[in-house]
Write a structure and sequence with these properties.
With about 240 residues, the chain is an alpha/beta fold. About 40% of the residues lie in helices and about 15% in strands. The mean pLDDT is about 90.
Length: about 240
């Protein structure tokens, strides 16, 4: 996959932003320099999850409008060396157009090994903007019909936008609950329904959500976080088995 990756989901609440941050932390552990860009205008949250909320003076819209230099809108994570954030505009009316956002990413991407873009949920204008500079994508879904149907819509929209390298992340997977609910016979049925090749299965772990809301990404580890280490290596082209 390319070094500019949009992370998307068909519906809210799939844990997409958490996947963005955990993947970014895993990549920097492998020696990569990563820029996270929050594209959820009016609803940004990565600044809280990375504990830089109080530091944000400029966002992506300030950079393109000339209110600051591009570098002044990029903030270093205090807990993670080589992880940086560009925040989304705090007001939804400052949403960037696809062409302007693409120009912004093209300007800054050469300074980083990876640019990971957190798209707003759904396939509206914000999603189109987020996907505009990307030539690869991760679709985050939960193993339930409403979420999977949304993933299919995202896949089709990405195809129409010319994004060709697309992979599926099944997030918050609990084997016991999955079997009890009986929505799908097995994970292969989820993958078939989502119409997208699988790259990772992330187990449900309440500790991941707690760490994110505490702004402590990268400070704590556990078995569930190790899934993202494997995902990062797979993005690098290494043949790593998908743990279930």
């Amino acid at each position: 996959m390319s070094n500019v990756i949009v992370v998307a989901s068909g519906k809210g609440g799939t844990g997409k932003s958490t996947v963005c941050i955990c993947l970014s932390v895993a990549l920097i552990k492998q020696g990569k320099k990563v820029l996270l860009i929050d594209c959820d205008c009016g609803m940004r949250g990565l600044d809280i999850m990375l504990d830089v909320e109080q530091d944000i003076l400029f966002d992506a819209s300030d950079a393109v409008c000339g209110n600051c230099a591009y570098g002044e809108a990029v903030y270093k994570s205090p807990n993670n060396e080589n992880l940086y954030l560009m925040a989304a505009p705090f007001d939804a009316e400052n949403e960037l157009s696809p062409s302007v956002f693409k120009q912004l990413v093209d300007t800054v991407k050469d300074n980083f090994d990876y640019v990971i873009i957190d798209s707003p949920a759904g396939i509206g204008s914000g999603f189109v903007t987020a996907a505009s500079p990307a030539d690869s994508a991760l679709i985050v879904t939960n193993p339930e019909p409403t979420s999977v149907r949304g993933a299919v819509k995202v896949r089709r929209k990405l195809d129409s936008l010319g994004v060709r390298s697309i992979r599926l992340v099944i997030n918050r997977f609990d084997k016991r609950v999955f079997k009890k609910m009986g929505y799908y016979s097995d994970l292969d049925a989820v993958i078939d329904a989502a119409q997208t090749q699988l790259i990772a299965v992330v187990p449900f772990d309440i500790n991941i959500s707690v760490v994110m809301q505490q702004g402590a990404a990268g400070l704590k580890t556990g078995a569930s976080f190790a899934v993202f280490d494997r995902l990062a290596r797979r993005l690098e082209g290494r043949r790593i088995p998908i743990a279930l």
